[in-house]
TrEMBL record:
CDD domains: iodotyrosine_dehalogenase
InterPro entries with a match to the protein in the record: Nitroreductase, Nitroreductase-like, Nitroreductase/BluB
Protein name: Nitroreductase family protein
Keyword Signal tagged: no
Originating species: Agaribacillus aureus
UniProt KW Transport keyword: no
């Protein structure tokens, strides 16, 4: 008998999930290739202004939204900004906060840790990148009766979605920066977000500028980042 596509368990509908699998040798090869492909992703701060179609950004957001979330509450909102006026407003507000951070709020030790990255309070990429995706986390939500409903593991869930977003950007041959101007509340105001949405990450997305250099960084080797208990 053919397997039913859906069935009811304890009063809830379940869908048949036919996951494609691979024999270990093929899986091993795929895992190696995927690692090498993702190891090639780098954070980029120098963007080209070359346009990126809206539909591509929509696909990136849809990909991010496939992340798992606590109780499947999907506690995220992705705001995609290409409007030059809004980008410029965001840049102005971000630079104001960043100026304060770099000049008085960040510790000497923090500034020293950032030296190899070459960052400062100037954020031209906020206007140059064709799109800014601002990821908001929803501290709580409203149900269909407009009653407050809970979200769970919000930071974990939105962090996962942001990770999926970064891999989708890399896959599209685009680059991104995980930018965290601090504090980020100005984004709630500029984008007129409701009270349950808090800024999580600001991610400029686009093509890289013509000739770019990224810091020569090393990723920690497997022995340093893992312990196996066999
Ligand atoms: N938010 C600041 C400072 C900054 C902090 C860390 I930690 C970084 O890895 C990079 C930058 C900025 O965006 O410049």
């Amino acid at each position: 008998m053919a397997k039913p596509k859906v069935k009811e368990i304890d009063g809830f509908e379940y869908t048949l999930y036919e996951k494609k699998t691979y024999e270990p040798d093929v899986a091993l090869q795929r895992s190696r290739e995927y690692y090498q492909w993702l190891d090639n992703r780098r954070t980029v701060r120098d963007f080209s202004s070359k346009p990126v179609p809206k539909e591509l950004i929509e696909n990136l957001i849809l990909t991010a939204s496939t992340a798992p979330s606590g109780a499947h509450k999907q506690p995220w909102k992705f705001c995609a900004v290409s409007s030059p006026d809004i980008k410029s407003e965001i840049r102005k507000a971000a630079e104001k906060e960043e100026y304060e951070s770099y000049n008085s709020r960040m510790s000497e030790r923090w500034l020293k840790d950032l030296q190899p990255l070459g960052t400062d309070w100037h954020k031209p990429f906020l206007e140059i990148a064709p799109w800014l995706i601002i990821v908001f986390k929803k501290a709580f939500d409203f149900d269909e009766h407009n009653e407050k409903s809970n979200n769970y593991y919000v930071n974990e869930s939105v962090g996962l979605a942001a990770g999926f977003l970064l891999t989708a950007i890399h896959n599209a041959g685009l680059v991104a920066l995980t930018h965290t101007p601090s504090p980020m509340n100005f984004l709630v105001k500029i984008l007129e977000r409701p009270a349950n949405e808090r800024p999580f990450l600001l991610i400029p997305v686009g093509y890289p500028a013509d000739e770019i250099y990224v810091p020569s960084l090393e990723r920690r080797p497997l022995e340093k980042i893992s312990e196996f208990y066999e």
